[in-house]
């Protein structure tokens, strides 16, 4: 397929993706040509989605990693790539994508939250708490960020900070009380309140 400077790489990616979706053998001829456009993040993201849908997981992972390294990748693109990498079990690559995203734009609460989730999964609990806390600071009504800040601080053994976060989550959504009570007994570092009213009083007082 002829490619002009005015068109850029987008038509080439579209053609390769269309051929891949259709099972057209021409895809095998078009895909190598994409290597000339290593920095075209949108194309690599779109290609990764198709590869994943076709069950070509390893190829999808490699393609997502190319998207996350691309110079043209924006913070939302990096967030998208990181989320899929995390779903595919590529935790370190996901962390790298999220960290690059927040370096480009530190004001995106959802990206900080996603970073917190993978750091928590990696058992980097203080760093996870900090990431969740940043998301919560950016979006003060972000209940899940506040709640997960509490869990991460609890997992780090910092119960005072955990209780402050749980109290904030409870103020945002009183119906999260059950989840908070369960979280407090689900970790080696926690607290057991024999009466729900006692826990409610502690949360209300903070």
Instruction: Please give the radius of gyration in angstroms.
Output: 22 Å
Helix fraction, binned, reads 55-70%
Q: Note the gap between the termini.
A: 65 Å
**Based on DSSP secondary structure assignment, what is the total number of beta strands?**
0
| Order of secondary-structure elements | HHHHHHHHHHHH
Question: Uncertain runs with pLDDT below 50, 5 residues or more?
Answer: 1-6
What composes the largest sheet? Answer: none
Content-based structural category:
mainly alpha
Q: What's the overall geometry? A: elongated
Beta-strand portion reads: under 5%
Total helical segments? 12
What does the model show?
This is Tetratricopeptide repeat protein. GO terms for molecular function: protein O-acetylglucosaminyltransferase activity. It comes from Acidisoma silvae. This protein is mainly alpha-helical and 206 residues long. 69% of the residues lie in helices and 0% in strands. It has 12 helices and no strands. α5 (75-87) packs parallel to α7, α6 runs antiparallel to α7 and α8 runs antiparallel to α9 (143-155).
